[in-house]
Amino acid sequence: MAVKTTLIANYLAARRCAADWCRIESCAKSNRLLDCNILMTESLGQATELARQAAASGCDMVVAVGGDGTINEVLNGLFH
Asked: pTM of the predicted model, to two decimals?
């Protein structure tokens, strides 16, 4: 059974580290143990709402992809 997973990525961080992001995205999509949904933030504070929605939808794992700000927003969404 695949683990329902959501990756919440900061668009600007992914763009700055495009080569690394391509490897992360490819690995996540090809991993048969993950049912992976990848979401990109487009504005400040959006990661909080995306994390809240992921948790409410029964997601097993939420992964923050970015820096301190993205991690902080995702945690706020999960523990609101």
From this structure: 0.85
